Structures are given as C-alpha cells and as structure tokens.
Amino acid sequence: MSLDPTHQPEPGSKTRLRLWLRLLKVSGQVEAELRRRLRAEHDTTLPRFDVMAALARHPQGLKMSELSSYLRVSNGNVTGIVDRLTEDGLALRVAVKGDRRAQMARLTPKGQQAFADLAKHHETWIDNLLGALSPAEADTVLAVLGKLSEPEGKT
Amino acid sequence: MSLDPTHQPEPGSKTRLRLWLRLLKVSGQVEAELRRRLRAEHDTTLPRFDVMAALARHPQGLKMSELSSYLRVSNGNVTGIVDRLTEDGLALRVAVKGDRRAQMARLTPKGQQAFADLAKHHETWIDNLLGALSPAEADTVLAVLGKLSEPEGKT
DNA sequence: CCAAACCTTTTTAGGCTTAAAGCTTCAGGT
DNA sequence: ACCTGAAGCTTTAAGCCTAAAAAGGTTTGG
C-alpha cells in the first residue's frame, strides 16, 4: 500500500507531524531546563511554582477547587502540592466563612517573598533560553500558534 | 523599582515570555489530547507509546540503557514501562549474547501490530490537532523553532 | 424534621519521573 | 587467581499526575 502516487492522504500531513515533533522538542527542552534550575537554584519544582504563581495573582486566596480548575489539574492533585507548600511555610489554608466544607489556599508573607524571587529569575531564564529568537520572529510564531489556541470556527 | 523609564532590562523580553507561555499552552493542549485519546481509544499511555515507537524502529531490539538514552529518560524509568509492556504481551526481554548483564527489549509480534495501529491513528490526530495551520505556516514555525534546537554558535 | 441530592475536599490506587543505592557482571591489572 | 573499578539493570524513596471512591458539610423537597 501507498505505492499508489495518487494517494496523498493529507496535504501537509508530513509537515504538521514534523512541526509537532519540533514543538515537543523545544518546549520539552525549555521545560526541562526550567525544572533543573528551579531545583538546583531554588530547591523547588515546576508544579509548586505554578501553584505559587496562581496564588500570587489572587492575594485573597483561592479555594482548592478554584485552584485546581485554574491550573487545569485534577482536584486531588493540588491537595498534595499545597500540603508540601504548607509544610515549608510558604502557603496556608484558611477556613471559608459560611461554608465549613471549603478552604482557601493562600501564600504566606514568606511565600509571597519567595515567589517574587522566583518570578524574577524565571523571566530572566526564559529570556535567555529563547534569546536566539528576535522579537520579530517571536511575534511571528506567537501569531501562528495563536490560531491553535483560538479555535475560531465562525466563518 | 521599575518606575524608572530608562530601565528596559531586555528588548523583547516581554515578547519572549509571551511566546513561551503560548508554546507551553499549545504543546500542553496537544499532548493532553494525545494522552486522552491514547487512554480512551487504545487503553495505553504516552510513555508506553514512546517506548513502543523506539522499539518499532529497532526490530532487532534495544538494550535497556540504549532505550533510556534514546528516549532521554532515566535508566530506572524504562524498567517499569518495559515491565508493564511485557505484562501485556507487547514486549519481551531477551538475553544479550556475551554479556549477561544486559538485556534487549523487543516488541512481540502482537506489540508490532499494536504499534502499527497506534502510529496510524497518531498521525491522523496530529494532522487534525494542527489542522488550523497551513503547510506554509507550519514551515515558518518549524524554521524559527529550529534556531532553538540547533544552537549554532559557529559564526 | 429528615433523607436525598449536591458540593468540597481528601484519600486511594495506579502509573510516570528522577536520583540514589544495591546487585550482578565484566574487564583489566597485579 | 584475586582485587578493583566500571557497566548494566533493578529497586527504592519522594514527588507529581489522574480518576474514582470516600468522607464531611450543605441544601432542599417532602
């Protein structure tokens, strides 16, 4: 099969597959380097960073369920991460007034300070890791990839 | 701090950070969808798919250490994955002649057949998920991201 | 009032991941 | 033959991830 030159299942199928593999490679490399630096220089992990970033944007705190839907991870997942952040004194749980089922996760002052430090380094790291791209190139890719995130179907 | 308008730490730093976030978003979405379909339609996982793909390219088999360096994952990691593939009858370990320490992991006929089916669907999925991009757009992104994978320093 | 339905969170079970430790085997030097 | 270091693989510990079940708390309809 496929010796038939008239087959051509999809135009650009091959190119898209190559694009996917490269996308996977680049994001994997950057992500791996971020994880490595977070661990080596700050003794933390990417999931912890993500949770802290979410909480930093919401100083009043987030319910556990809000946090999990915000981060697009499972409900039971954030339990463990917040547990460990709490053990390290970076986060805490506070009761929700009027609903004894719910709890708000919130950064401690120590956690806010730690995140500010992390965020500063994070931006620098990204700028270094993607430094081979000019702003114009970055904008180009940004625009093209934007088509995938916004599945505009309204023709 | 940063009220000083002469600061400007990096030109394009903001754009690169946005690019990274979009890259993360797109690859995360595609990857999550692949995992979901692998699970729902084939009762398997992405790591298993990756191992099977590696073994499919090497019909004579791969040593465990070759497999782990090929996939860029830790040595102890593939042990468990090959274990589970073996339990399902998709892979097997064969002794390496002349070195009783080493073992070759290899796909069984059942495993080869299963992978052929997976690979066919995989290509279709990718083509669908990235279908919003024209071949020209895909080529553009491919070229730009190529600069990151090939850190050409020879000027 | 109270039981069923619903909501919020934690717990459980299973898989993936790494780093580090342990076991066996190999290869080379004495 | 013996020792030693390195190689190959597995095991273990800790964290992350999900889906599903369990445990409390709340709300609502009779």
Spell out the blueprint of helices and strands.
Two copies of one chain form a homodimer.
Chain A lengths: L12 H30 L3 H12 L4 E2 H8 L3 H13 L3 E5 L7 E5 L1 H21 L5 H15 L6
Antiparallel strand pairs in A: 1-3, 2-3
Chain A binds a DNA duplex (30 and 30 nucleotides) through helix 4.
Would you kindly provide a written description of the structure presented here, covering whatever features stand out?
- Chain A is mainly alpha-helical and 155 residues long.
- Helices cover 64% and strands 8% of the residues of chain A.
- Chain A has 6 helices and 3 strands.
- A 3-stranded antiparallel β-sheet of chain A has the order 1-3-2.
- In chain A, a hairpin with a 7-residue loop joins strand 2 and strand 3.
- In chain A, helix 1 packs across helix 5 and helix 3 crosses helix 4.
- Chain A is globular, with a radius of gyration of 21 Å.
- The first copy, chain A, starts with 12 loop residues before the first helix and ends in a 6-residue tail after the last helix.
- The mean pLDDT of chain A is 89.
- At the A-B interface, helix 1, helix 5 and helix 6 of A face helix 1, helix 5 and helix 6 of B.
- Chain A binds a DNA duplex (30 and 30 nucleotides) through helix 4.
Helix content of chain A: 55-70%
Low-confidence stretches of chain A: none
Q: How much beta of chain A, percentage-wise?
A: 5-15%
Q: What sequence of helices (H) and strands (E) makes up the elements of chain A?
A: HHEHHEEHH
If strands are numbered along the chain, what order do they take across the biggest sheet of chain A? 1-3-2
> Helix count of chain A?
6
Average pLDDT score of chain A: 89
Q: Could you tell me the number of beta strands of chain A? A: 3
Shape of chain A: globular
Largest sheet of chain A: 3 strands, antiparallel
The most extensive interface, with participating residues per chain, is:
A-B, 43 and 43 residues
